Amino acid sequence: MKEKIIFCWSGGKDSALALNRLRQDERFEIVSLLTTCNEHFQRVSMHGVRLELLDAQAAAIGLPLEKIFVSQRSSNDEYQQKMSASLAAHRANGVTACAFGDIFLEDLKRWREDNLARIGMRGIFPIWKNDSRELIREFFMLGFGTVICCVNDAHLGEDAVGRKLDEEFIRTLPANVDPCGENGEFHSFAFAGPVFRRAISFTVGEKVYRPIEVSHPTASNSGYNCAPGPRQTKGFWFCDLLPA
What we know:
Structural class: alpha/beta
CATH superfamily of the largest domain: HUPs
Shape: globular
Helix content: 25-40%
Oligomer: single chain
């Protein structure tokens, strides 16, 4: 019998690649996607993607989607309380694990596992410790389509948001930026690829700059990590992606 699991879906490239691997693994049955959303902005936390596009992703994937809403200035306590309540309900329905698209942030993985252990669940990390350069090559090889929706201004500028994540984008990244943006240098929105039954239609809207205290008021509750960069992080550029 397959193990029932839920998948923490951010909507980006790492989530898409991890989900693709899990769907090919006969040991697991994914019963739901789970996404943290900002209640004030009505967008996906960190990524800034409209909830209409998140819903479109879930529909194209063909899995139920549960949204966990946190306040604009969410605390760790608020996040943990709401996440624990959701996971406990899934645990009561036979779900025993929660999967993530993390690659190499040890503290984040430990934090997730500690929180899961408190309610009798375990974590699954399908792309953990994979070389990020190999991962991005696999991503391209599988035919995923992704657009950059948010960047950390310590590493990248306004010109990066709204660009398609392709081989040319990777070649132009500064040397200190991880090819998968694993340290929070950039975030993405996946719109096509093997996890989707159809591509997500959207258009690129305006670019918006938000200071760090507005866009990412807390760090650990969302898994966000300010990577050391050539400059201090002062804020983030977002690209408003509009449902077509």
